[in-house]
What we know:
Bound molecules: pyridoxal-5'-phosphate
Shape: globular
Amino acid sequence: xNTDDLxxxxxxxxLVIETFPTPFHIYDExxxxxxxxRLKKAFSILPGFKEFFAVKALPNxxxxxxxxxxxxxxxxxxxxxxxxxxxxxxxxxxxxxxSNDTPLEEFKKAKQLGAIINLDDFSHIDYVDKSIGLPSxxxxxxxxxxxxxxxxxxxxPKEAKYGMxxxxxxxxxxxxxxxxxxxxxxxxxxxxxxxxxxYFIETALMLFKLVKEINEKTGVKIEFVNLGGGxxxxxxxxxxxxxxxxxxxxxxxxxxxIIEKNRVMPLKIFMECGRVITGPYGYLITTVRHVKxxxxxxxxxxxxxxxxxxxxxxxxxxxxxxxxxxxNKKTKTVDVTGSLCENNDKFAINRKLPDxxxxxxxxxxxxxxHGHSMGFNYNGKLRSAELLLRTNKEIIxxxxxxxxxxxxxxxxxxxxxxxxx
Length: 421
Ligand SMILES: *Cc1c(COP(=O)(O)O)cnc(C)c1O
């Protein structure tokens, strides 16, 4: 796909802006569904395959409803995410609850919903057992430590706060089996935004060997492995999307070699991807408000890093298209900025773009994961609306924009009046 290709026209966006002023994120339902189907089809060669969408990537219930219809569950990590999942009717073992440093109320809520609870730490066994009792199905998160290397976003496994060591893990299965837990899963998540297929195959291989070892050492038969998320997307025009087929076939081979050969089947394969499911199919639409020339050339937009933090946080590249100027020569080198009082509030630095005028509409690509959801209110910035481009081309709001009233809604102005200083 040409990186400037869009599922909507300039005219359609101009019409939308009359009702929903910029900035806003817009998601492309048809592409999300097509992608979900491609993923499911590729991975259907694996026994009991299921994808649990990592809600944190795009926590909007309209999107969750679409993904539910495509047969996905949810991967939740907080109370509000569990509530969102419940609101769209994704409950029971269609929820994977993978949290860390977890408060008791969240374990309680997860247990009440019948979610698959994935314990991040050995000490959480006692914490849950003594308070609400252990569920009959439990999963544990493994951290391979120095055995594996991570990547830039997630870091080195042995430095990571997540998961248990192998010894702790083996002990965890032993103890929980004695405590009467009947069914078990195994989980890991050690990579983020990874474009190399081999990484996911190696992770599966590592977990399959572990399933065998756990079985030998504890007699526990693992029912499923959850390979985590972390499949990357090509943000840069020079990068290529991963092949789902290649990953699935590699995992299938590892399954035959380890799981079937050692007769530790049946073993179901789960994944909890977020980014690759919705990331490429979201766009942040913003209007150019000011053009400024000093030592550099600055394009000031009505969106800021509160609407998309990735460039400021990771130096991430997001492709930018100027609507109606897709074919123009890229003659200018500019910084595309927002209005936040932080100098890293830039969507692009030294980007080559066509000549830009005030009022031009910019499309910032691939904001469908960790875009709106990473939003914040620092500097009094408000989170934008979210729109959905339906399969029938209708465009509907799926979240309104925040207002200044929202910003002050947690403050008590009556108490303020009485507050004497
Ligand atoms: C963030 C996260 C995911 C999803 O990661 P993606 O990179 O969006 O695929 C899955 N599992 C856990 C535990 C996570 O924290």
